[in-house]
From TrEMBL, chain A:
The gene is pstB. PANTHER family: ABC TRANSPORTER I FAMILY MEMBER 17. One of its GO terms (cellular component) is membrane. Keywords: ATP-binding, Nucleotide-binding, Translocase, Transport. This is Phosphate import ATP-binding protein PstB. Residues 5-247 form the ABC transporter domain.
UniProtKB/TrEMBL annotation, chain B:
CDD domains: TM_PBP2 (cd06261). GO terms for biological process: phosphate ion transport. This is Phosphate transport system permease protein. Residues 1-20 have a biased composition (Polar residues).
Amino acid sequence: MAKRIDVSGLTAYYGSHKAIEDISMTVEPRSVTAFIGPSGCGKSTFLRTLNRMHEVTPGGRVEGKVLLDDEDLYGASIDPVAVRRTVGMVFQRPNPFPTMSIFDNVAAGLRLNGSYKKSELNDVVEKSLKGANLWNEVKDRLNKPGSGLSGGQQQRLCIARAIAVEPDVLLMDEPCSALDPISTLAIEDLIGELKERFTIVIVTHNMQQAARVSDRTAFFNLAAVGQPGKLIEIDDTERIFSNPSVQATEDYISGRFG
Amino acid sequence: MDISTQNTAAPPVTDQPSDAQQKRAARGATRPGDRIFLGLSRGSGIFLLVIMAAIAVFLTYRAAIAIGKDEANFFTTFEWNPTGTPPEFGIAVLAFGTVVSSIIAMAIAVPVSVGIALFITHYAPRRIGGVIAYVVDLLAAVPSIVYGLWGVLFLVPQLDGLYGWLDDYLGWTGVFSWQGGAPRSLFTVGILLAIMILPIITNVSREVFRQVPQMHEEAALALGATRWEVIRMAVLPFGRSGIISASMLGLGRALGETMAVAMVLSPLFDIQASLLDYGGGTFAQNIASKFNEATEMGRDALIASGLVLFVITLLVNGAARMIIARRKEYSGANA
């Protein structure tokens, strides 16, 4: 259940290209931390290092430490597959499995983890869909394909799928950028509820969204195109948006660049 | 003011444009390039239908002549003697040989092809995958007569051991018992056909697996799926209809393969209970080996057998289409 993330000296590469350099931060359990910054600053790359998805990309590799409570995710004895079972992820574009029903989508992670009785699966699927505020909309069509839902519903289905396996951390990579404002609001409300149970990290291009949903905000920037992205500062969201300690942060959130 | 009243005034009934004119107006202006391309593509579509109809009409017409003289029932006779009285041309032997050898070929080729395609797209380093894909393409370019030569001169002499083993362990089933004759049986034909249809099934499956959206594979990975689980959750279900289509292309080739089958299969016209005993025949092999010396009646009989092959192919393709359509909403095409 909800764990603390402690990153120190993390650098990530795509082949020989250094995408992010020397990032250190702490993410508190049961809080929402937002990553903001201009395109190409490495915030998504950094997010993907937190569940070892970065190294799935050909040429992707990581140096540094990511501690989940006291366990180093990049330790020699750690299986990346096991990491991804404890650190869930929601993507920019809703990606329910098109060949599976709504029920099977939510149950997919559980079935990976082992065999469950039908009644157990039913319970978890219902609980997860309720947790994602989707139950009332889909309870009568659990056996219909997930791809038949609207974009916002699909994204909540993906959140239900991610939380069904009870991860310690939930990573969200611009989860609302493909959604309309009403669906966005539904997801933002949901994030507020989910932080009672999970540690949440969200990447967003929408600064109002960062201000609305997060407790802490991290600002990333890069010196120039081709240079690695760096963490400029991380602080309480209120402080970042009112009185940041670095000038570049203020310039970015006030719309002077980016 | 004047203009607007003119425009809104209802036209007199007698000036109503004709239906054709209305349709033309609804279509709007067309450009020459559009018209030419429309004509070309529509023409190609029609051409295909005409060719198909021409083949069907030819087969049906010539076959009807033979079937008209069919006093010995051609479904139940096991002989091919179209010049005899009454003329005998047993379709059953050919249908059995064709279908059985193709089923053996599919049983071997489909799993192996899907495995090769998955290895190329999801396991092998890019360069090794490229080399393997190239070799598979080469395999497709080998003419069937060369496969026939290889089959009869190399493959057949190697099979005694396998046949003996099958007879020892599975002989009790009857299907895999072996009397010790030359291994020029339907089973050997099936193995050879499997090798011949491997490239097309592999290549089509490979393209389908390449098209699996990255986001579906990442969805599985992010849930903590291993590579095999990613393939099982995201790749194979997405590629399912493509694998079926690929298999149908391969099956089409297996059903119709002529030269290699004619060279390998022992020309004993009969149905054997065991797959391993020599003898049997397929439609295409039978036509190829008998056509040159056939009389008028003999040719019509061969064409009748060709019609049956045509119908079998249509039925198989129809069945495959139904399987694909049945789960259309889960196909991923609507994602």
